[in-house]
Amino acid sequence: MAGPGFEPRRHAPAEVQRRRIRRYLAGRADQTTSPLSRRTSDTRIKELLKIANWLAAPFGTEEYLFRKFGIPGVHYNMVNNSPVQTQAGITQTVLGIRYLVDAPT
Q1: What's the average model confidence in pLDDT over 81-100?
Q2: What single-letter DSSP state applies at residue 14?
Q3: Of 47, 56, 92, 93, whose CB neighbour count within 10 A is largest?
């Protein structure tokens, strides 16, 4: 709860908390989450990798345009071979996945 004396901070992994090490400014390189583990079935791994491939579709592909700009004619229009968002595109296509994954540009 926020209140007097509240200071936001990162949550350190359990092994760090036990040792009382509190120096985490940018986080560790291995401090990530993953839906994959040793117990994940092969079927689920294949499905999750398909999703990851779709999310990382290269610039200019149909998947990339859909993920970044939405539906053509509704959320964006092509102007001089470049997608230009409509007002609906500006307000309706901001997805949280933009901050999780992006294709190389």
Answers
A1: 82
A2: H
A3: 93
Residue of 43, 66, 44, 45 lying closest to 55 (CA atoms): 66
Q: What are phi and psi of 79, to 5 degrees?
A: -125, 115
Q: Cα dist. 83→13, 58, 88, 91 in Å?
A: 42, 15, 13, 15
Domain count, the chain: 1
- Residue 22 phi, psi (nearest 5): -120, 15
User: pLDDT tens-digit profile of 50-82?
Assistant: 888 888 888 889 988 988 889 999 999 999 999
Length of the chain: 105
11, 24 in Cβ contact below 8 A? no
Question: For residue 19, is it within any domain?
Answer: no
Domain that includes residue 77, residue range: 56-105
